[in-house]
Amino acid sequence: MGFSCGLVGLPNAGKSTLFNALANASARVESYPFCTLEANVGSIAVPDDRLDRLAAMFPSKKKIPTHLDFIDIAGLVEHANEGEGMGNQFLAEIRAVDAILHVVRCFEDSNVAHVTGTLDPRRDIAIVETELLLKDLETLSRTGKHLHLETKGPDRLAPARAAAWDALVDHVARGLPVRSAHIDHVIEDRVREASPLTAKPYLFVANVGDEGENGFSADVESAARERGAEVIAIRGRLEAEIVEATATMEERSMFLAEFGLSETSLGPLIRAGYRLLHLVTFFTVEGPEVRAWTVREGMTAPQAGARIHSDFADRFVLAEVMDLPLLIAAGSEKALRESGKIRRAGRDYSVRDGDVIHFICS
Ligand SMILES: Nc1nc2c(ncn2[C@@H]2O[C@H](COP(=O)(O)OP(=O)(O)O)[C@@H](O)[C@H]2O)c(=O)[nH]1
Ligand SMILES: [Mg+2]
Q1: Ligand 1, from 12, 86, 110: best to mutate by most atoms within 8 Å of Cβ?
Q2: Is 240 exposed, middle or buried, given 0-12, 13-18 or 19+ CB atoms closer than 10 A?
Q3: Which ligand is nearest to the CA of 241?
Q4: Distance of CA 109 from the midpoint of ligand 1 (Å)
Q5: Of 198, 220, 255, at which residue does a domain stop?
Q6: What share of the chain is helix, strand, coil (3-state, %, to 5)?
Q7: Total structural domains within the chain
Q8: pLDDT, tens digit, 9 for 90 and up, residues 231-280
Q9: What average pLDDT does the structure give for the chain?
Q10: DSSP one-letter code for 300
Q11: Relative to the CA of 360, which of 62, 152, 222, 319 has its CA 20 to 30 Å away?
């Protein structure tokens, strides 16, 4: 699995349309193929010229790009947290993703039913957010019960943990997302294990009609501003139809030009996703592979290592970190090593975009 982005939103927001547009856009003409892993899971290789340059230094090794996985998560309706609709399955899927793309319907079409009868992006956003918050409240409260039981045992940190947890539960009970809470370091690990939905990085995708941005997408923009979040506007159906109807890049460019567009949403979505979700790419050269990986900005070297192999986090000893331009300038890893420019980084090192890393594990 690559870095996974879950498409979340109310029914008929355009999630599957966007998923299909992404799938077809690359399946048909891009050199990096999209592969459908399951009916609702697709994986897109991320083009990266830094990986190409690194791979050129190791001609005998196989080049493996990093992937973004898109998951079309159906079933979020009001009261999903209580198991309404496909509520519980939906929530299990969303818990597993690394980031959320919140798709909001911003197109009018009397042929496409709206779950609540009227088009109102702000209300739709609030419904989705409420479902996620209620689910977090439920799971966090359950863990809270365990933490209170632990205060009766010998662990001297248990009371501090329970108190910090109560503060977090209060925060969510006030309708605020986990991402805006102060997380006391005594509960950091437990919060990570709980994987709260409202702690995940996210951005809004305003699914606008064929005419482009409109008053509804402006509502999404203002809602996003209030939350310190970002928005990408996408003409979902138009994009899906264009990629469906065209077999070559040239044909597609002509179609897009008619609508004043220069490219499909695939490229911008991936680029914007990287930027807005604060993702970084690092590279490894191990065994027969030159490979790119995606992690969140600020991840430490052991956390990044866990992307490669889950037990790297525990077995981590140190990371040898190379700067890609320096490595290319040196001509070989050996030359870089001899010039003393390979850094030795410990557990606290935050991985930077473009690092080439050797993980040394026990
Ligand atoms: N008019 C119009 N219809 C759209 C647009 N995007 C999606 N739809 C239609 O809305 C319906 C629901 O879309 P779908 O992607 O299945 O929504 P989902 O329930 O979120 O997966 C489908 O009939 C789409 O063709 C759009 O930009 N304009
Ligand atoms: Mg759907």
Answers
A1: 12
A2: buried
A3: 1
A4: 9
A5: 198
A6: 45, 20, 30
A7: 3
A8: 989 888 888 888 788 777 788 888 888 877 777 766 677 777 778 778 89
A9: 88
A10: B
A11: 62
Ligand 1 is surrounded, with C-beta below 6 A, by 9, 11-17, 107, 109, 112, 207, 209, 235-237
Q: With 60 as the cut, is the pLDDT of residue 30 above it?
A: no
Please report which confidence band the pLDDT of residue 225 belongs to, taking 50, 70 and 90 as the band edges.
Answer: very high
Strands 316-323 and 355-361: antiparallel
Residue 220 counted as domain residue: yes
29 — pLDDT class (breaks 50, 70, 90)? very low
The contacts of residue 254 (CB under 8 Å, 6+ apart) are: none
Task: Render pLDDT for 45-70 as a digit per residue (tens, 0 to 9).
Answer: 887 889 999 999 999 999 999 888 88
pLDDT value at residue 139: 92
Residue written as tokens 């979340």? 8
**DSSP secondary structure code for residue 68 in this structure:** E
Residue 214 to residue 223: CA distance in whole angstroms? 14
CB-based contacts of 337: which residues, under 8 Å, 6+ apart? Answer: none
For the chain, the straight-line distance linking the first and the last C-alpha, in angstroms and rounded, comes to: 25
Q: What is the pTM of this model?
A: 0.84
User: Measured between alpha carbons, how far is 18 from 46 in angstroms, rounded to an integer?
Assistant: 17
Are the beta carbons of 295 and 98 closer than 8 angstroms? no
13 token code pair? 């927001």
**DSSP, residue by residue, 198-248:** GGS-EEEEEEE-TT---HHHHHHHHHHHHHT--EEEE-HHHHHHHHHH--S
Whole-number pLDDT of residue 28: 44
pLDDT of residue 88: 66
Q: Amino acid identity of 189? A: D
Say yes or no: 11 and 101 in one domain: yes
Give yes or no: residues 32 and 112 share one domain. yes
Residue where a domain terminates, one of 198, 225, 259:
198
Looking from the CA of residue 13, the nearest atom of ligand 1 is 20
The answer to whether residue 346 sits within a structural domain is yes
User: Which ligand does the CA of 9 lie closest to?
Assistant: 1
Residue 138: which domain range?
Answer: 129-198
Residue 282 lies in a domain: no
Q: Do 40 and 82 sit in the same domain of this protein?
A: yes
